[in-house]
From TrEMBL:
It comes from Herpetosiphon gulosus. The lineage of its organism: Bacteria, Bacillati, Chloroflexota, Chloroflexia, Herpetosiphonales. InterPro entries: NAD(P)-bd_dom_sf, ODC_Mu_crystall, ODC_N, SbnB. This is N-((2S)-2-amino-2-carboxyethyl)-L-glutamate dehydrogenase.
Length: 332
């Protein structure tokens, strides 16, 4: 049985993903809801770490996603924060898709762009359902890297009324570069804050996307009532804060591990009752989006491999329709 393998380079994947924000948000929602319905297989992510090196890691995310077009595969993503000092991206990734009936590989593609966009799409989807102001005009970003750049892009698709952005990064040069890039690309008023507290004080829709490995935000008292925090980097918030907020996650079992802020809160409290629900329970109508509109809501997504599969399968379909990429007929 002969089966072709499609190879997609980074610039080809980028061409396909460009301008598809709303379609990708819909794909993420469908994947979340399929996972919630039990139509997936999702082993825990496997972390490859290096001796005496707490920062760098490579993560394997295998997954199966059922539904109308079943898919199986794995994302292999490296996070090396020191790359930024060399002028290269912190994260790089590949995604392999396999035929779920034969196991044969059907696609191998650059995955960092898919990974960044699925992360941003999940944050924007959460904001769409959780944030109380559908006409939001201002957003706060802590961390001025690729993930928050994409998060801003996707938030603008959900909240086209956004006009102002307040940003903070521990590296002022990164913040200044981010400010210039987003001002030019999106035509927004981008302001650099001197502290994280200033971002929390001035905005009520906030995305945290840092490389922090330990909690560093100890106070949310300056946040306005009804603030929504998109905690995509998972380890920014002191676990003491978690207990008193409304916590929505992508998957309870996955996010309560690996020393995330929620995992640390669970260790301290001896339970995880502070997690209210999975996001898919809200999007499918099972659970109210925001039972207490005055409370600060935190969305903490561990980052599920089913999202990478959903986007990669869509990218593969688009590539085949548009004759993009290289097809190998005798790979195996």
């Amino acid at each position: 049985m002969q089966q072709s393998l499609t190879l997609l380079k980074g610039h080809e994947v980028g061409r396909i993903l460009d301008g598809a924000e709303l379609a990708l948000i819909d794909l993420v929602q469908t994947a979340y809801e399929a996972h919630q319905a039990g139509l997936s297989a999702l082993p825990h992510s496997s972390f490859l770490r290096f001796p005496n090196d707490p920062l760098n890691r490579i993560i394997a995310l295998p997954a199966y996603l059922g539904g109308a077009q079943p898919s199986a595969g794995i994302k292999w993503i490296a996070s090396f924060p020191g790359n930024l000092s060399y002028g290269i991206q912190r994260a790089n990734a590949t995604i392999t898709l396999n035929d779920p009936q034969t196991g044969l590989p059907i696609a191998f593609m650059e995955g960092a762009q898919i990974s960044a966009k699925r992360t941003a799409a999940s944050a924007a989807l959460a904001a769409k359902y959780l944030h109380s102001n559908p006409q939001e005009t201002r957003v706060g970003l802590v961390g001025c890297g690729v993930i928050n750049h994409e998060t801003l892009r996707f938030l603008r698709a959900v909240f086209p009324s956004i006009r102002e952005v307040v940003i903070f990064d521990t590296q002022p040069a990164h913040a200044e570069h981010f400010q210039a890039a987003c001002s030019d690309q999106f035509g927004l008023n981008v302001q650099v804050a001197e502290t994280i507290e200033a971002v929390l004080r001035r905005t009520s829709l906030i995305a945290l996307a840092t490389t922090a490995i330990n909690p560093h935000i100890d106070d949310l008292s300056m946040c306005a009532a009804g603030t929504t925090i998109l905690h995509t980097s998972l380890r920014d918030l002191n676990p003491r804060l978690i207990e008193f907020c409304d916590n929505v996650v992508d998957d309870r079992e996955h996010v309560l591990r690996a020393n995330t802020s929620l995992d640390l809160a669970q260790q301290a409290l001896g339970h995880h009752n502070f997690v209210r629900c999975n996001l898919a329970e809200i999007t499918n109508g099972q659970v109210a989006a925001r039972p207490n509109p005055e409370q600060t809501t935190i969305f903490s997504p561990f980052g599920l491999g089913v999202l990478d599969l959903a986007l990669a399968q869509w990218v593969l379909g688009q590539a085949q329709e548009r004759n993009i990429g290289l097809t190998l007929n005798d790979f195996c």
